[in-house]
Amino acid sequence: MISCVGLHWIIKYGSILNIPRNLIKKIPLFENMLKCSLCLGFWVGVIVTLLTDHNILLPVASAGVCWFFDNINNTLQSVEIKLDK
Predict the structure, then answer these.
(1) Phi first, then psi: what are they for 27, rounded to 5°?
(2) CA 2 to each of CA 18, 23, 63, 71: distance values in angstroms, whole numbers, following the listed order
(3) 3-class DSSP state of 75
């Protein structure tokens, strides 16, 4: 599960993937998927399941866990911005 969250954050926020991410965002389907933590978390879970032969329910659990931790990350960033002001 930790690998799913890590992969989710790398795909969504990693600066090393800025160029490919900007190219992929030109396709509306992928632009929407990269904005949605549930969607991206699900597809990350599918990739991890296919690569590791984990339980078929991993994508569903990955979607929820990625969404949860992404929201915690967003909340912490918002608090940090308010404290800096």
Answers:
(1) -90, 120
(2) 22, 27, 12, 16
(3) helix
